[in-house]
Amino acid sequence: MESERTGHLNQEGQRDYTGSKMGMWLFLYTEFLLFGGLFLLYAVYRTRYVEQFHTAAASFDTGLGAINTVVLITSSLTMAFAVSAVRKGDRRRSVSALFLTILFGMGFLVIKFFEWKAKITLGLFPGAVEMFQLPQGEVIFYSLYYVMTGIHGLHVMIGVLVLVGMMFLLVRKKITEKDFIKIENAGLYWHLVDIVWIYLFPFFYLLT
Amino acid sequence: MMNSTERDAPIIRYRVYVYVWSCLIILTGLTLAAAYLEFSGLSILINIVIASLKASLVVWLFMHLKYESRLFKVMLLLAIATLTIVILITFLDVLFR
Known about the structure:
The structure holds 2 protein chains of 2 kinds.
Chain A (H helix, E strand, L loop, with lengths): L1 H5 L10 H32 L1 H9 L3 H26 L3 H31 L7 H4 L3 H36 L9 H26 L2
Chain B lengths: L13 H24 L3 H22 L7 H26 L2
Helix pairs in contact in B: 1-2
C-alpha cells in the first residue's frame, strides 16, 4: 500500500506534514514537562539549601560548561543548515551539515565524559563513601547533576543515533526536497536537546 | 506527482540562521558576564531571563515555530502554562508550609 510505504501520504497522495509535525511537537512538550519536573525539583531544593548549592556549584568548571554550550548551539546551527539545504535540493550540503552536527554532538558527549570522570575520581557520585561525609544539600546537588545531565546526555546520544539514521536516508535518497519531514522532525528533536542544555548550563555552572 | 494541499513553511535563509547563532553566542557571553559580576540575588533572575531569551530564539527560528500554524503556538503556551502552574502550586507549599 502506497500510504503505508511512504508513511505520511494519505490515500489521495496528499502530504500530512501538519499531522507529522504535530506528533513531534506533542512529544517535545512531554519532554519539556519531563525536564520541567526535574528543574522544579532543583528549584525546591535550592531554596532549602542555598549555601550548600552555592558551594557545590562553585566546584564545577565553568569553562568546560561554556565550551559545551557553544558546541551545542553550533550543532543546532548546522542542524538548521541541514534541513534548509535538503529543502533547497542540495543533499550533499545537507549530508555535510548533518555530519558536522553529529561531530558536535559527539564532542559534547566527550567533554561531558571528562567532566563526569573528574567528579567520579573525587568520589563525588551517588553511593560513594565521600558523598556521605558531605552536607545533605551538596549530596542533593551532585545527585541532581548526575540525573539531569545524565538524562540530557542520553537524549544527546539518541539524537546522534537518529541523525546517523537521517544521514543514511539522505544518502539513499529517502529524504529529498519533496519529502523532508523525517529530517525536519529529527531537527526539532535536536533543537529541543539544545534548549534543555541552555537551561542546564546556568543552573549547574553559573548560579553560584 | 505530489498533490500537496499544504503550504510549506518558507525555507529560512542560511544568513538568518547565522544571525540567530550569533545572538545565541552573545547571550551566552552575557550570561557568563552576569555570573562573573555576581549581582547576588539578581543573578538568578538574569540567568533565567537570558536562558529563556536563548530558548525563545531557538524555538522561534531554528525550530521555525514562527511559520507554524496558530495551534502549535497555543499548544506551546499550554505546556508552559502547565509547568508554571505546577511550579507555583509547589512553591506555595514549600514557602508557606
